[in-house]
Amino acid sequence: MAIQVGDAIPEMKLKVMGEKGPEDIATGDIFNGKKVVLFAVPGAFTPGCTVTHLPGYVVNADTIKAKGVDTIACVSVNDAFVMDAWGKSQNADEILMLGDGNGDFTKAVGLEMDASGFGMGTRSQRYAMIVENGKVTHLAVEPAGGVDVSAAEKILEQL
After folding, report:
1. Quick check: 157 pLDDT over 90?
2. Greatest CA span in the chain, whole angstroms?
3. What angle do CA 25, 111, 46 make, to 5 degrees?
4. What angle (nearest 5°) sits at the alpha carbon of residue 121, between those of residues 131 and 86?
5. Active-site residue flag, 74
6. Residues 67-116: pLDDT tens digits?
7. Which of 1, 31, 66, 131 is the most buried (most CB within 10 A)?
């Protein structure tokens, strides 16, 4: 079952790129005691994610943070190397790029999808959520193929 408004973010580890390579980052360190906008994409460097979804958050990062958001994070079922390279290619300096290489976080929040028909295996659905002190206060899951309800502009309306 998918995570719902009011649910806590599961305690687990994701990956970020550190100075010496991939490093663990605990979800508690990301979410506890903070207001976070987390958005998920099916895959780094894929068309909708690269042309529309991530750029919207890059362009609106200052406006989002001005609404009291401590962290804007992007998660995908990709490794930390790919997420780091994608973030750099998109000038996403204000976005915490999170690798969920095995899809453990995505499965834990119940928002995985089968993209094997596209040769991509299990991936994340496209969504965005607002998390306050570790609890989901807003969740917007996209219908297949869309980049609308989870777009930065729509999340700004919810802040």
Report:
1. yes
2. 41
3. 80
4. 60
5. no
6. 999 999 999 999 999 999 999 999 999 999 999 999 999 999 999 977 77
7. 131
47 vs 141, residue with greater confidence: 141
Percent of the chain topping pLDDT 70: 96
**Residue reference for tokens 């994610």:** 49
| CB-CB neighbours of 14 under 10 Å | 23
**Domain limits of the chain?**
13-158
Per the structure block, which two tokens stand in for 94? 């204000």
| DSSP, residue by residue, 53-104 | IHHHHHHHHHHHHHTT-SEEEEEESS-HHHHHHHHHHTT-TTEEEEE-TT-H
Mean pLDDT in residue range 15-36 = 97
Sign of CA dihedral 49, 50, 52, 57: positive
Dist. CA 84–CA 15, nearest whole Å: 10
What residues contact 1, with CB distance under 8 A and at least 6 apart?
110
Q: What's the predicted TM-score (pTM) here?
A: 0.94
To which residue do tokens 């460097």 refer? 45
Given the residues 44, 49, 75, 80, select the one marked as catalytic. Answer: 49
CATH number for the domain whose boundaries are 13-158: 3.40.30.10
